[in-house]
Design a protein that fits this description.
Elements: H1 2-23, H2 33-42, H3 55-58, E1 100-102, E2 107-109, H4 121-130, H5 140-148, H6 153-160, H7 166-181, H8 192-197, H9 205-215, E3 242-243, H10 274-278, E4 287-288, H11 310-319, H12 346-356
Antiparallel strand pairs: 1-2, 3-4
Keywords: Heme, Iron, Metal-binding, Oxidoreductase, Peroxidase, Signal
Protein name: Cytochrome c peroxidase
Subcellular location: Cell envelope
Length: about 375
């Protein structure tokens, strides 16, 4: 009895020590032990098959945590295999709610990826490791084996304890990545807009005009809302809903050349977005409204990277229905009420872009 009680005490102490390590902040990075471990995993190029690609390849800080090469779609670890969608930013994803149907607004909300197919950061972090178009590992066991050989594995054991199996180790891996994705480093709220809201700087005349157009004439704030998120306490510039903007199929999408069996339709591929996740044709062609934070860094734009610049996509929003564009990739569910004929002048488009540029993190107030 005494031995059992003593064992429980020792075990409890070990758990407390592990939690203490997980909560301690590294004085150089400002990250907790667990967040720092997640960052090491996030940037580890040895975790792909073949080696050479990490999570950070498609989600790097210099590009607002989007593709380091600003590609239409990202090439996987195996050369010639491209994903079918533009890499979304991983910044501020910790505030996206699980996919659900909002009865009051009669719309779907939340879920990660463009199509809402998973509900947690841990689930999201797991998928690229074994996706043959991304990091290309055969299975979770292969990933676990690579992490066991990594220099930071001792840190993982110190934080989580020795994993009992490859499955439990893989859970630790995705949990650590999720911790990093929840960190202040990936969610800094350090833009000029944030400094302006805090009274630390002023917007220029053009930026202020752009904000007013964003709210009113441009109708941008209908989906990229300006109300603070309840959990973040800050504006995320998205309501996490889904929409079909009428974006055409991108003829330059390298996924079209990705071979069978990864792409069985070639250039005839039609991305159904949320409709594919829900197996519901009324939601086909709709994609989640992304945050606009760091939008000036995350070109190209649209789920298929159709637009090279902010100027191009803002102009499309403005004149889609009054200028010549190719047919939408999926026409049946296109939003015809909130874009397409906004009547913005060229100067007004430029003002909106000037405002969007205030959403880039890393601003230093004078």
């Amino acid at each position: 009895m005494h031995s059992f009680r003593k064992t429980k005490q020792i075990t409890g102490m070990m758990v407390c020590v592990a939690l203490l390590f997980a909560c301690q902040l590294d004085k150089h990075t400002g990250l907790s032990e667990k967040e720092l471990l997640g960052k090491k995993i996030f940037f580890d190029e040895n975790l792909s098959e073949p080696v050479g690609e990490s999570c950070a390849t498609c989600h790097t800080a210099e590009k607002g945590f989007a593709d380091i090469y600003s590609r239409i779609t990202s090439e996987g670890a195996v050369k010639g295999r491209f994903s079918n969608r533009n890499s979304m930013t991983s910044a501020y994803t910790c505030y996206i709610p699980p996919l659900h149907y909002n009865e009051e607004d009669e719309t779907y909300v939340g879920g990660l990826f463009w199509d809402g197919r998973v509900n947690t950061l841990e689930e999201q972090a797991a998928q690229p490791f074994t996706n043959p178009l991304e990091m290309g590992n055969h299975d979770n066991v292969m990933v676990a084996g690579k992490v066991r050989r990594a220099g930071y594995y001792r840190d993982l054991v110190r934080i989580y304890g020795e994993p009992a199996s490859d499955d439990s180790l893989f859970s630790c891996i995705t949990n650590a990545i999720a911790a990093y994705e929840r960190s202040a480093e990936m969610n800094p709220f350090s833009s000029k807009y944030d400094a302006w809201q805090a009274g630390k700087c002023e917007l220029t005349t053009q930026e202020q005009q752009g904000l007013e157009l964003f709210k009113e004439k441009g109708l941008c704030a209908e989906c990229h809302i300006l109300e603070p998120d309840e959990r973040a306490g800050k504006v995320l510039f998205t309501d996490h809903t889904y929409d079909n903007l009428g974006i055409p199929s991108n003829p330059d999408n390298p996924f079209f050349a990705t071979p069978f069996p990864y792409n069985s339709c070639g250039r005839d591929t039609v991305d159904l977005g949320l409709g594919s996740t829900l197996r519901n044709s009324t939601e086909a062609g709709k994609f989640r409204v992304p945050t606009l934070r760091n939008i000036a860094l995350t070109a190209p734009y649209g789920h298929n990277g159709y637009f090279d610049t902010l100027e191009e996509i803002i102009h499309f929003y403005n004149v889609r229905d009054v200028e010549e564009y190719p047919q939408p990739e999926f026409a049946a569910t296109v939003n015809k009420e909130e874009l397409g004929n906004l009547g913005l002048t060229q100067d007004e488009e430029a003002a909106i872009i000037a405002f969007l540029s205030t959403l880039t993190d890393g601003y230093q107030a004078d």
